[in-house]
Amino acid sequence: KELKKNTVTTTREYNEKYVQVAGCFNLSYGSLDSFYGGLESQVGAPLPHFLRAVHQEHCDATESDKKFTTGNYGITTTSRTEFAFAFGLPGGAAAAESTSLEDYESMAREFSAAVADEAEDEKITTKKDFVEFCEQQL
User: How far apart are CA 43 and CA 50, in angstroms?
Assistant: First the structure.
């Protein structure tokens, strides 16, 4: 019921509703060129290699090793460490600093080959089989 109550009537009020820090930013309409240019015109084309792109964002950026504390669990971590955990890197945070993109790519190729072998042997035929296989790899 609370969400249905909409007391906002102007664009200025909408702006103020979503600003967490007063005076931080103002919403504005862009041009038609901006609209038709899409997100790519604003931030650039995506990198075609997913693993490389995510690695670059988390491990090669200027703030990759800058510590931050999560708002939900209060854990202090870095982008590099989060990437290592999301990837399932053996050794976790301790191994994150010394693991190169080439190491990650090699692990991904090995994993893909193992999945292909299991699928060929018809051991992976459903999503459940795949999930179980992934859990065994950890």
Answer: 16
